[in-house]
Task: structure prediction
Amino acid sequence: MMRRSYRFMAAAAVCSLAATKLTAVCAFAPPSSSASFLSSKQSAPQWLPTTAMTTTTTGSKSSSIHQLSMLPSSTLQLTTEEPANSLIYTILHTPTLWSILAMTSIVALLVLWEETIHNIRSSTPKAIVPVIDSMLAEVGGLGFIGLFLSTVVTGGPLGQIIGRLSEDYLGDEELLLEAFEFLHTFFFEVGILFFVVAGVCVGAVLEEVNKLSEISELALDADGDGEVTLDELAEALDVSCMIVDTDGDGILSEEEKIDALKSTASNYNFIQAIIAERSMSEVDRAGECLVARERILGKYSLPQEFEIDAYFGKIFGENLEESVELSPITWLPLIPLIALENSVDLSRDVVSASSSNAFESCGYFFATPWVFYPTIFFQALSLTWALFNFWKMTSIKKMLLPTLVTDGVNGEAALLPPRYTIDEIRNNFNSSPSIFAWGEQFFTGGGAKTSPPRNEHEELFGAVGAKFEGVYRDSMRFSTWLCVALIVYSTTQIVFRDMAALYLHSANVGNPEGLVPELIVWIIFTASAVFQLSLAPTTFLNYCFVTSVEEYVKYDIVKEVMREEELCET
Result:
């Protein structure tokens, strides 16, 4: 309720500001100018010389002043059809009417916005609600910036100062003021698209988790008894067959399980595992969750009725709430790239792709080395960052996931312990190779050196140490943020502009030789960023897995699920 009150207060302020400006304009506008303004909005008016008469009366003395003016023919039709003394003519030329209509339109849009948000919140899963709240907060912050720019900068006391600076250093008084408005709009678009992408990605993950129970019953529960056994899992997932019971006594000892696990680990190829992860089916992913469930039930003595899908669903919601929060500091890494590319426009008296002379910058984003090469660097950094996040989550998950095999002697399914429990395998595992270890230590203030791992589970996190959970949640968030920013700028400011220039065969293209190569390169950049975003749902899913199993099992969420399922008294 407090948030809604704040939004209505802000809406009232905006309406007051709009009414003040509109009333001031209308109050000093003569009726004839209002009619001219209205008629000028008609499509393709024909301009004809006409004679307009203005009559003033003082007592019994009147005078007529004939003026030759240029008015659209539609204005002539309006004035001839409606007498000047008619009621409709008088009402339509009343400034107060248009002020009321403008404010009513604004209020109607605000009511529509409020009702839309209310309906979305009421029909959205609980885990997605934080995305909506963060989006509203971001819209409010960017709206405040827009209000500040319009009242203080572009139309306020700072406008003359900024205009003077723009004229002295950029050669155009309006250029810097328009750049403020463009960058504010760009920030707004990036912020909104980020939350949309976050909502879509996590919504897809939650939908997949919600299907886990159904998939288990329909695809994995072969005998239909409501319980998925290890044999049913092994058959459905087509697991490998190997000799586990080496002594043939019919009992799988811990030593036999460890020997079997070592033999599977010796041929384990992480690259092949990553490719398989990218194309994993819903049934395979459900099987992984059920295998993890068997491990959790056995290790923590939970009842067989415990639903793992409800547990993971709450884990996703908890991590989502942390992942969509953005601070103003988040914008800082974008400043160098956006400033470099925007400088191509400003150096040619162009503000953005929507400027009337925007084509003058076409081709120069590609032809300017100090812009093109840093852009390649940022694109390569973004791609490497997204792939590393994906690879690290996948490889750690494989170490934490129990291995399901079928014994080649008796044909029974066997659940081997996770690979990380074997010292030899864990010591040979490295999730922070070469330069990535240095990067993790640098950005975490020492990483494992200052926050050493507290258990075998955290040893898998590599150079980042015990700070893994918070650091890589931020890493995924910032990586997605960078991808969204690259997509928005590349498409709206370069790709669409170059395509328009080619389609229109414009003669105002600044660098025709660089136009086609620029378009091709930036389309590749955009495709790369879209590919990176496609990795985000799986990366997030695996992150939630590795931070919610084994030593990271969330006991408070387990108890909450058990209370909801009435599996415990409290």
Remarks:
- The chain has 23 helices and five strands.
- The chain has a mean pLDDT of 75.
